[in-house]
Each structure stands twice: as structure tokens, then as C-alpha cells.
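Practice problem. Given the sequence and the SMILES for fe (ii) ion, write out the predicted structure.
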Amino acid sequence: MADLKLNRNTFGDEKNKGNLLNREVAFSLLDEWVKNDRLKLHMLQVGGLMKAWAISTEQADETLTWKWEMSGLLHDADWDQWPDQHCKKIIEYLESLNIDPEVIQAIASHGHIHFGVEPKTKMDKMLYAFDELSGLIHAYSLMRPTGYDGMDRKGVLKRLKEKTFAAGVSREDIHDACARAEITLEDLIDFIIQHQPSIGLI
Ligand SMILES: [Fe+2]
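Answer key:
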């Protein structure tokens, strides 16, 4: 795998604070850049979880909620077509559009092991936390005959302990992310089970 380190620690420009893409533009960027439906669903799921968290836990208003959702929605935008430039490409693109630096920082820090950028804000930390666990829980839903129906925390914890299940998902990252976000793994699992089933369905 290519070296994805970003080798910098500041993103965007403070004077662009509050500049977000409008919803239509963000969703067409997703359609244009991401051809892989599984990846697209993952991005919708992480965006939807960020939105749900902002509303339920951060008491966010509409603009702040969209900021959280947009960060989740676009975090892997360049992964499909430019895996060797993962993170760099979307970050530079959003910088060229003068997007809010906090959105760019959140995307840049969603995998500190790969990109070398530490998650700082609660938004950064929740994006990092949702990213891997959301995918593992979705994979689990696909192997259950009833999908998300009747899924419980115990089942997810069991899958987490099975190293061969969704082997690409780093258990270490999940624990690290929970510690950074100051949320228990159990609460994070419950939140995803509660909110993820309805995300990305038409
Ligand atoms: Fe992701």
C-alpha cells in the first residue's frame, strides 16, 4: 500500500469557517467520484451516523448537523478511484473549494495510523470511531438471515472477538477510537445498531 501520510497538520483556512457544500453538490460529488456501490453505502452510513450523533448528542442546529454529516459522507470520496492518493485528493479538492477547515481536518484525521493526523475535535473523533465499526456491523447484518432485525450488542461483541470476521477491520483502531471519543464500545455499538438500519435505504 502506498504511503498515505499527509505530512502536515493544518488543513483549510480559518477564514472559510462555516463554508459547506450544499447538499446537492455534496451528493453529486459522491456519485461522480464513487462508482463502487458498497463504498457509497458505507459513506452514506457513516454520514448518517454522524448526523444522528450531532442531533442526539451534540444538540447541533441544522448547519452544524450538516457539517457533521458532510464530513462522514465525503470521508472516503477518493478511495474508489485514487486509492494511492486516499485522503490527500479529497482534502485538496475541498481546500480548493474553500470549505470549512473543520470538515477538512475531520476527514484528514479519520485514520491517524495511515494519514499521520491526530483527531482533535469531537467531530474528528466520532468520524474515526464510526468508520470501522459501522462497516463491521454492516458486514454482520449481511450474514444474518434477518439482517439488522433482532441484532444485539452481544452478537457484535462476539464478531469483534472473531479475528477472521471482517478481518480488515482493525479492532485496535476501534478501541483506540472509543478511548479518544470517551465513549464505551458498548454504547457505540448500541448507537450504530439503533441508527444504521434506516440509513442509505431508498
Ligand atoms: Fe470509511
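Check your answer against the key. The chain has a mean pLDDT of 96.
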